[in-house]
Each structure stands twice: as C-alpha cells, then as structure tokens.
Amino acid sequence: MVAMSALLEIEAVTRRFGGLTAVDAVSAEIAQGALVGLIGPNGAGKTTLFNLISGVTPVTSGTIRLAGETITGLEPYQIARRGIGRTFQNLRIFPNMTVFDNVSVGPLGHTRNFWWEPLGLGGARAAAEREQITKSARDALARVGLSAEANELAANLSYGKRKYLEIARALAGRPRLLILDEPAAGLNERETSELARFIRELNGEGLTVLLVEHDMSLVMEICQRVMVLASGRKIADGTPAEVQRDAAVLAAYLGTEDEAHA
Amino acid sequence: MFDVHFLQQIVNGLSLGLVYALVAIGFTLIFGVLNVVNFAHGEVYTIGAFAGLLLITSVAPPLFAVLLVVAAVGALTGFGLERLAFKPFRRFRDEASIKSRAMREATLLSSLALSIVAREVLDLAFGGEMQVIPQSYLLQTPIMIGGVALTDGNLVILGASILMLAGLQWMLYRTRTGLAIRAVSNNVLGAQFVGINTERAIVATFLVGSMLGAVAGIMVGLYDGSIFPHMGFGPAVKAFVAMVMGGLSSIPGAVISALILGVAESVATDFVSAGWKDLIAYGFLIVTLVFFPRGIFGYSRERV
Question: Is the distance from CB of A8 to CB of A65 less than 8 angstroms?
Fold first, then answer.
C-alpha cells in the first residue's frame, strides 16, 4: 500500500555497537494513516531501530524524518513532543501515581513553561493548560475504558489494564505516530484479539500506527503492510501475504530457529 | 507522667524533627529521581546558615526576608551542586545509565569531594569556631504558652517548616512541575518518552531540596546560636537516617521518621546525657536496616 505522503521516513539508518551492526542501512517509509507491522526474530534489531526512532540511541549514520522534519539528533523528549508516542514491551507506567496522573503526563510535555509554574510565572495560561491536560487525560482514559479506575494507584491495576493505561498515556499526548512495542506480549488469546480490534479502531480514526512484534500472528492479522528485519537488515517489506511467502523471511524464522530463540 | 516538662520536650522534639524532615526531603527527592545519595547536602544546610549570617551582618533585613534570600541562595547552591557534581557523570539517556551503579558511585564521591571543598573554604574564610550572631536575630526569646516554656525559635521553625512542607505538597500534587517530577521519579524512561525533559526534572529536585535544606540551616543556626563550618554534619546524618527509615524515596515516610527521630532524641535527654543522644539515630538506623530493610513504611511503597 504505497500511500499519500510519508509521515515517517527512515533513510539508510545504521547503528553499530562496537563491532556489531545492530541496524544495517535500513530504509523505510510509513505513510500517513497506515498500520504497519515490524517483525523479526529476537536479536533482529527491532528494538534498536525502535530506540533510534524515539531517540534513546543515537544513529551511527542515516536520517529519520517525521513529517519532513529531521528528528535524528533530538532528545527523546523532543521527539515525543513532535508527535511520536510509544509504549514499552516491559511497561513503563508510573506505578506509584494514580491512573489519572499517569495519563496526565502524556499531554504535559506539550504545555508551556511548566517548570516555572510554582513561581507563579505561568500566569493565567497555566490554569488553562492544566485544564487542557485534565481534559485530554479524561478523554484518553475514556477511550481505553479506564475511567472507573482513574483514582486507583497504577500499580494496583491488572497487567492487561496497565497495557491500556500505557496506551492511554501515549494517546493523551495526541501523537501523530503511535509505536507499540510488543503489545500482545503476556496477553491471552482473547485479550490479544480485543487489543487487535482496539488497534484497528485507532487506526480507523486516522492514527498512524507502527506495531513491533516478535510474534507474527497479530501483525499478520491486522497490518496492511509488514516489514521484516533479520540480523539488522530489512529483508522483506510488503503485504502480510507477500511477506509470508517470502523465502528470506521463511529462512530467517524457520532456518535459524535455535539461534533466534537463544 | 504527662507533665509540663514532658510537653516541652515534645515541642522541642517536634521542632528538631521538622528540621530533620526539611533536610531529609532533599535527600529523598534526589534519591527519587537519581537513586543516589547527595553527600553534599549537609553543606547546603551550612551554606544556608552562612548566607543568612552574612545577610544579617551586612544588611540586617527582617527575619522573613532573611529566610527568603536564604531559600534563593539554597536553590542556587543546589543548581551549582547538580551541575558540578552530578551532571558530568550523566552521559547517556537510557535508564540503565541514569540510575546505574557507576553513576551512583561516581556521584557519591564527587558530591563528597565537593562537600569537603565547601567546608574547607568556609573554614578558611570564617575560621572553624562558632560565628558571632547579632543578639537581635537569635531565636531564643522565651515565650510561655500555657505553662510550657518555648522560645520564638520553636515557633519560627514550626511555622516555617509546616509552611514549606505544605508548599512542597502543593508543588508536587497541584502543579505541572510536580507532576513532571513525580513522573521522572517513578520511571525516567517512561517520562522521557512522553515528552518530559528529565534533565530539568533533575535540576528542579536539586533546587527544591536544597532550598529546604538551606532554610533549615539558617533557622537552626539562629535557634541554637551556633553557625560554624561543620554544623551540617549532624543534621545530615539524622536526615539520612530518616530517609532510610522512611523507605528511601517516600516523602511522607521521611517526614514521619524525622519527627519520630526528633522527638525521641529530645525525650531521651531526660534519661541519658546529651552526649549520648546521637546514638538514638544510629539505633533507629540499625533497627531499620535489620528488621525493615525497605523502610518502616516500606510496605506502602509510595514514592515522592
């Protein structure tokens, strides 16, 4: 599905750690409004690529652009503010804060001068921006169905709900691109299919989603396009049906099964 | 048993405990975001006292102005401390390195080094002995309230401390700044990826913690009538114990522990000689470490 304009452009991005090339000259484009999957066996470089996009790890070479603007070299928080929201494989919620406060942090970064608020320098604007945060947080909680738990401590939520909390936190920041890192990990089949439906719904509302998964089934089920990484290289890129027939993909998944699960 | 003398000891203990609490909050806030102990925190307290004294001897403003200026000096000291002793060791952006052991050990030494330098500079500039404090600023005027003999120092410490604690709660729970600090304290990486500048959050905790510590220093200096380069050591140790008792990163835990410590020390002087009273804190520390390694309120795990 070669679509309209590219929201995210990854151009010949390479990352080396000493002698190891974790991501090797990967190029890809994610169109506005797309639902793209990124798969690959363990150690394929998915997480590294992910970290390069979100800015935790600097690229060795190459460029990443979001809506035409180069984001390589920016701090992770700056990249987040430009509209990339993400969730984490091993959740990074704020366990000792309430569910509501957790989600409030999502839009917080978009408001201005909040470090000076205790000194009263925010002025009338501060109150309006706090109001805005509250509204975004409420909407996001309602969207994932956690409104009833708003005042619970996040640590007290079940594992499945914590996943949705993390998604709500990202949504509250109104991202242009949402990256989900192994969202199905630890969920049972029913929960996974619920999640799949939810992701498709979000995408249907116009949100661009990049889904990073170790397990193929969810990706094959909901994505319009799938990219496959193996040993740091992009070995396939196409519709789920195309990718599933691809010889290189089959080799990567089946041929080196032992290594992949080491 | 519940006689006037006892009540007096309680009030004294509460003042003492509030001072420990103010200092402990600095430790706790910084531990919350960085997982490190700031060994120069006691010197922030001392610098607060000296800054106040300089202001008193040069300008002689009213007391509340002294406290305000000292708070500002404390914030500035915290900023400098963070940039000199902590920032240089923070090179990477991921959580593993922000809260790593290497970072912890490096900053433990760098903050200790900076504390020694600060102490020695004060020693060289002012001499090691107690400073002369103008009589009119000493907070030792007796006040009788219902038969309990207090000093105006007790009231200043009680009032200012409670005001600052309330201000801190307001900042942490009612402003966006506090929301950001709590988020970073809960999960650095999570906060970063929703757009929080963690560097600023770290600096903010140093500003706030050092502000409280410095004000505690000048209040105690005027209350005890003693300001000297090594004055920060004792309160820093007690505050450190309170932080450990409270579970390392819990502000309510640290405050309650500090109050317990203060009252225990104050009441104990009835039974043991004053020279032994420091043993109380160490006793609490040992009991906490042996029986409650996650702090005496550790079960709740509430941070910042």
Answer: yes
* ipTM for the complex shown: 0.89
Altogether, the residues listed in chain B come to a count of 304
Co-location of B108 and B248 in the same domain: no
- Alpha-carbon span B155 to B232, nearest angstrom: 22
Tokens of B157: 């410490």
Please list every residue in chain A whose beta carbon sits closer than 8 Å to the beta carbon of residue B175. 114, 117-118
Q: CA–CA distance from B138 to each of B130, B202, B223 (Å)? A: 14, 35, 6
User: Which token pair is A220?
Assistant: 């094959």
Question: Confidence band (pLDDT; 50, 70, 90) for B189?
Answer: confident
pTM: 0.90
Single out the residue of B18, B4, B35 nearest to residue B205, CA to CA.
Answer: B35
Instruction: Give residue-wise pLDDT tens across range A102-115.
Output: 999 999 998 887 88
Q: Where are the beta strands (DSSP E) in chain B?
A: 142-145, 148-151
For residues B246 and B225, membership in a common domain is answered with: no
Lowest mean pLDDT among A91-100, A119-128, B81-90, B185-194: A119-128
CA distances from B277 to B150, B234, B251, B266, B274 (A): 21, 11, 25, 8, 5
Q: Is residue B123 part of a domain?
A: yes
Residue A174, SS3? coil
Q: Cβ separation of B175 and A115 shorter than 8 Å?
A: no
Averaged pLDDT for residues B240-268 = 93
Q: Which of A93, A110, A115 sits opposite B177 (nearest CB)?
A: A115
Which of A77, A117, A130 is opposite residue B192, by nearest beta carbon?
A: A77
Tell which of B164, B189, B194, B211 to mutate to test the A interface (max A CBs under 10 Å): B194
- For residue B271, the enclosing domain spans 236-304
